[in-house]
Amino acid sequence: MSVNTLTPGTQAIKNQKQDLFESPDFYEIDDLLTEEHLLIRSSVRDFVKKEITPYIEHWAENNHFPYEIVRKFGEVGAFGPTIPAEYGGGGLDYISYGLIMQEIERGDSGMRSTASVQGSLVMYPIYSYGNEEQKMKYLPKLASGEMLGCFGLTEPDFGSNPSGMKTNFKDMGDHYLLNGAKMWISNAPKADIAVVWAKNEEGRIHGLVVERGMEGFSTPETHGKWSLRASCTGELVFDNLKVPKENLLPGKSGLGAPMKCLDSARYGIAWGAIGAAMDCYDAARRYALERIQFDKPIGSFQLIQKKLAEMLTEITKAQLVNWKLGKMMNEGKATTPQISMAKRNSVATALDIAREARQIHGGMGITGEYPMMRHMMNLESVLTYEGTHDIHLLILGNHITGIPAFK
Ligand code: TGC
Ligand code: FAD
């Protein structure tokens, strides 16, 4: 599909309402960013205002994944920003990556899902565990959006506990035979490739690249979602699928291999969710000044001011956590529990803010005229995927006490 072509219906429906978003920066965190960071943020913010926010309510309402966004994300550098330029990536640091995720999720969590799966969960494992041939074959096309990928870890019976997975492959001499199924996979119905985690005959987890068109591979779509409606989700089904031996990622095996990818994606979510929170706060602040009740703007009432003050406080705290975590990511020092704390805090903060902002909008808050209800529904998925809210608490509990309470 051509990059500049909008899906039929989308152009006609284009919401004429202007995106007036202004970013809250109460503690002047911009002072901590470089010129390059500010430039990247500004270009992605402009992209979101042009390519996402005018259409997003329509896409979400119609449960439509705008496939044309894939090439556009490639053009704006949203795929694999931290992957070196020689493989088509941006060669940027983790704060740039965080800012890109923040701006995209300010537009919509489902759109950020598309970008973070491609970058952190497809490009990252191919870059980190793939051989040179695999990197050259897939990474430049994934970076440009010529190819869309997905990441298959979760199974119908193994979500929070991926180490129990049943998907397996057998060595058949000249190929591997893959059997099993993955569930709840973002991008699956439209993906050209899937990075699939499966056990070998010894029960060791490995990553394999499965390509659309391979016999025995199907990707049925998951319907009926009330969340992430502009993102497509599906299953991955492997029925005696012959995988060429050169498609196994040789660099790392064991549960740690997919989990390391999740560290990168969870970090992006920590920034992304605060983007959604910033959008809700900004909408609520604006509405509080415009909406008149009892002959005054509702923003003049103390209870509304309390909501706004608490939103800004929580956003500011999370922005500082994200920035510091980004510094530690850049230095290769960030730990899984530190990432868990940020992901968990940002998503819960964003959900609370979406709900409070919805209340400030009164009845209007439940409509697609304003973004809060969509963000709120999206954030319910974000609270669950990449490790649920409670799993991240247990990761922190394990870190504090040294006692894993998972089992
Ligand atoms: P446990 O015994 O703790 O660990 C097993 C091995 O894995 C290693 N490991 C990690 N390595 C690197 N980074 C991490 N974050 C790691 N977490 C664990 C660990 O060191 C160990 O290695 P080794 O070499 O000693 O064997 O594992 P467990 O079975 O007790 O489970 C621990 C638990 C519950 C924390 C973990 O499995 C977990 O986080 N569960 C949540 C599952 C999850 O996050 N799934 C996400 C699926 S992908 C997704 O949701 C994408 S949505 C994307 C979108 O649309 O944006
Ligand atoms: P379960 O693991 O069954 O958990 C159910 C409840 O039990 C949760 O509240 C959980 O916190 C709690 N629980 C579980 N274990 C414990 C415990 N030990 N102690 C206390 N409480 C516990 N997966 C992928 O691999 N790739 C993707 O691209 C992907 N995209 C997704 C997109 C969407 C829209 C959604 C909703 C999910 C996606 N997932 C993906 C799957 C996601 O990672 C899982 O849903 C998540 O890890 C939770 O697994 P589960 O749904 O099976 O819940």
Automatic annotation (TrEMBL):
* Keyword Transit peptide included in the entry's annotation: yes
Quote the catalytic activity from the record: glutaryl-CoA + oxidized [electron-transfer flavoprotein] + 2 H(+) = (2E)-butenoyl-CoA + reduced [electron-transfer flavoprotein] + CO2
What residue stretches are annotated with the Acyl-CoA dehydrogenase/oxidase C-terminal domain?
Answer: 253-400
PROSITE patterns the UniProt entry points to: ACYL_COA_DH_2
Task: Name the pathway.
Answer: Amino-acid metabolism; tryptophan metabolism; Amino-acid metabolism; lysine degradation
Q: What is its EC number?
A: 1.3.8.6
Q: What name goes with this protein?
A: glutaryl-CoA dehydrogenase (ETF)
